[in-house]
């Protein structure tokens, strides 16, 4: 067990402390750095989250209330700034025990013993679990705290007090605890009310009313708390309902006594009276069992779009049959003068990949106009005339038309028959793109990915005897 002066500060978690009737007060660990939140709902309710290094302009506050209803909005800026009224409803996460984010803004949810990963919910009508990917099975309900460091490492504290660190899980068939994670830091970590990182990857923690900090990566002997530094006065027990760092390095806390939310630069020494200089920017935040900062990664509108045809790749080229017609002059003794006319439309499908990790709101404008990538003279070009400009849909399969038009005049000798065959070459191409998008809360950012589609070229006619 840690003594009163030996307990370390655990990394990236913000605690929401619940006082339940007839029960020992419990904690909702939340990592309030920008990108991690972990919510636990058992007989005692817990929520753990971790700090994330995100650009200030992309930061939003994610919350879950006691009914598992999710909301997202800009962080409060003043006492009369009512987050609960102006934030957006994102539906709910039924039976979720932990919710937390990685530094990229991906959301992780524990339900039962399983771990799921997906984007932040973007619509109150969508079932988040239906589109999320399950990346862990069976053991994920054994943790009290789950949170990421700014470098993307996953940290976990079991209910028995063991502390583990490992890479982000990606495969449900590989048990993270037994195959990927390493036990670090000794035992008794369950006594921490909150654990979280600042933007220098220094771990902070609240225990027995004290706020301490120290570097978490240099020890595996359980001596982290003994080597940590206490900062601020002995006030943090009531301020650990939620505690973490925001995008600009400010420390945020929610009081368990009245639900007030405070923010100020973090304390620097043991006697620093943080609460006296902190700014109160709201009240009633004890209605939430989970709070966390994360990225605004929901697209509302595509502002501009560019195909990067100069670095596009031709993946394959193969012959493509278009049409044929037989001209029979076997029963005639005079030449047959004829014309092969082709006017045909082929439909091809294409779609955009979305490696950017952004999601689209239900009302998002996902259509835009741009030229059509095609192969010509050995390279990929962008056709952008009035006849080749295309209205693209960024989230669905696109269908484009290729018009094959050609005319050939020929002569069939007496007593013969010929077949006119129209062929082309079909190229499958990969073209990177960049797009400037406007997010749900009005921020502009650039995303990238690839478009894969088909291009037809070299339409020709071949004649053969029948």
Overview of this protein structure:
- Strands 25, 26, 27, 28, 33, 34 and 35 form a seven-stranded mixed sheet that branches. A four-stranded antiparallel sheet has the order 7-6-5-24. The chain has a four-stranded antiparallel sheet with strand order 8-9-10-11.
- The chain folds into two domains: 282 residues, Tachylectin-2, Chain A (5 Propeller), CATH 2.115.10.10; 167 residues, Beta Complex (Proaerolysin, Chain A, domain 3).
- The longest helix is centred in the middle third of the chain and has 5 residues.
- 5% of the residues lie in helices and 52% in strands.
- It contains five helices and 35 strands.
- The termini are far apart.
- The chain has 466 residues and is mainly beta.
- The N terminus is likely disordered.
- This is Tachylectin 2 domain-containing protein.
- InterPro entries: Natterin_C (IPR053237), Tachylectin2 (IPR023294), Tachylectin2_sf (IPR036813).
- It holds the Pfam family Tachylectin.
Topology record:
Elements: E1 15-18, E2 26-29, E3 39-41, E4 45-47, E5 59-65, E6 69-73, H1 83-86, E7 88-92, E8 96-101, E9 107-111, E10 114-118, H2 128-131, E11 133-136, E12 143-148, E13 154-158, E14 163-166, H3 176-180, E15 182-184, E16 194-197, E17 203-207, E18 210-214, H4 224-227, E19 229-231, E20 242-245, E21 251-254, E22 261-264, H5 274-277, E23 279-282, E24 288-295, E25 298-307, E26 313-329, E27 336-352, E28 359-365, E29 367-370, E30 372-376, E31 379-383, E32 390-393, E33 398-412, E34 416-439, E35 444-465
Parallel strand pairs: 25-28
Antiparallel strand pairs: 1-2, 3-4, 5-6, 5-24, 6-7, 8-9, 9-10, 10-11, 12-13, 13-14, 14-15, 16-17, 17-18, 18-19, 20-21, 21-22, 22-23, 25-34, 26-34, 27-33, 27-35, 29-32, 30-31, 34-35
Protein name: Tachylectin 2 domain-containing protein
Domain Tachylectin: 69-289
InterPro entries: Natterin_C, Tachylectin2, Tachylectin2_sf
């Amino acid at each position: 067990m840690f003594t009163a002066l030996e307990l370390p500060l655990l990394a990236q978690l913000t605690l929401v402390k619940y006082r339940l009737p007839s029960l020992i007060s419990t904690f909702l660990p939340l990592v309030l750095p920008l990108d991690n939140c972990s919510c636990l709902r058992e007989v005692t309710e817990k929520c753990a989250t971790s700090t994330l290094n995100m650009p200030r302009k992309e930061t939003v506050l994610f919350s879950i209330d006691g009914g598992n209803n999710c909301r997202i909005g800009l962080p409060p800026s003043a006492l009369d700034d009512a987050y609960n009224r102006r934030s957006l409803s994102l539906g709910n996460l039924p039976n979720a025990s932990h919710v937390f984010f990685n530094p990229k803004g991906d959301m992780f949810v524990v339900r039962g013993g399983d771990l799921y990963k997906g984007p932040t919910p973007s619509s109150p009508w969508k079932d988040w679990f239906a589109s999320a990917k399950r990346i862990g099975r069976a053991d994920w309900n054994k943790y009290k705290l789950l949170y990421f460091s700014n470098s993307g490492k996953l940290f976990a504290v079991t209910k028995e007090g063991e502390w583990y660190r490992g890479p982000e899980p990606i495969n449900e068939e590989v048990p993270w605890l037994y195959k990927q994670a390493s036990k670090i830091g000794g035992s008794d970590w369950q006594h921490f009310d909150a654990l979280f990182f600042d933007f220098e990857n220094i771990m902070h923690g609240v225990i027995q009313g004290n706020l301490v900090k120290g570097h978490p990566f240099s020890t595996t002997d359980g001596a982290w708390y003994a080597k940590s530094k206490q900062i601020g006065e002995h006030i943090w027990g009531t301020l650990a309902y939620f505690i973490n760092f925001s995008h600009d390095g400010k420390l945020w806390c929610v009081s368990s006594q009245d639900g007030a939310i405070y923010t100020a630069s973090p304390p620097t020494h043991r006697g620093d009276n943080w609460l006296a200089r902190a700014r109160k920017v709201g009240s009633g935040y004890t209605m939430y069992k989970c709070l966390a900062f994360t990225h605004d990664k929901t697209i509302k509108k595509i502002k501009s779009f560019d195909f990067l045809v100069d670095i596009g790749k031709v993946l394959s080229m193969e012959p493509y049959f278009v049409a044929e017609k037989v001209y029979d002059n076997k029963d005639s003794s005079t030449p047959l003068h004829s014309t092969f006319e082709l006017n045909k439309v082929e439909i091809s499908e294409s779609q955009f990949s979305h490696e950017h990790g952004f999601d689209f709101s239900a009302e998002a404008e996902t259509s835009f106009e741009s030229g059509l990538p095609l192969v010509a003279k050995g390279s990929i070009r962008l056709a952008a005339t009035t006849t080749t400009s295309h209205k693209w849909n960024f989230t669905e399969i696109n269908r484009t038309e290729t018009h094959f038009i050609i005319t050939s005049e020929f002569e069939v000798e007496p007593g013969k028959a010929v077949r006119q065959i129209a062929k082309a070459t079909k190229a499958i191409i990969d073209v990177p793109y960049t797009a400037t998008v406007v997010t749900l809360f009005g921020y502009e950012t650039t995303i990238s990915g690839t478009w894969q589609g088909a291009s037809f070229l070299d339409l020709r006619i071949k004649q053969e005897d029948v």
